[in-house]
C-alpha cells in the first residue's frame, strides 16, 4: 500500500493533548513552483486528529 500525503498514522506517541492515533489533512497550500500537482506546502494547514477507530478527537 502506498502512503498517502493526506493521512498520517503515528509511528510514535503523539505530542498532542488528545489520545490520537492518526491525522487527516483537510487543508494545505499547493506548491505552485513544483511540477507535481500533489506537492504540498504547510504554511497554512488543518489536520483532523483521529483515534485508533478513526473517530475525530475534539
Distance separating the two termini:
29 Å
Number of strand elements: 3
Order of helices and strands: EEE
Write down the overall mean pLDDT. Answer: 80
**Unreliable stretches covering 5 or more consecutive residues:** none
- Which strands sit side by side, in order, in the main sheet? 1-2-3
Radius of gyration: 13 Å
Helix content: under 10%
Based on Cα principal axes, name the global outline. elongated
Count of folded domains:
1
Note the total helix count: 0
Summing up helix and strand content along with how strands pair, one would put the structural category as: mainly beta
- Biggest beta sheet summary: 3 strands, antiparallel
The percent range for strand residues is 35-45%
Write up what this structure looks like.
Helices cover 0% and strands 40% of the residues. The chain contains no helices and three strands. It is elongated, with a radius of gyration of 13 Å. The chain has 58 residues and is mostly beta strands. The protein has strands at 7-9, 22-30, 40-50.
Short structural summary:
The chain is mainly β.
Question: What's the SSE blueprint?
Answer:
Elements: E1 7-9, E2 22-30, E3 40-50
Antiparallel strand pairs: 1-2, 2-3
Note the main attributes of this structure.
40% strand; mainly beta; 58 residues; elongated; 3-stranded antiparallel β-sheet; 0% helix
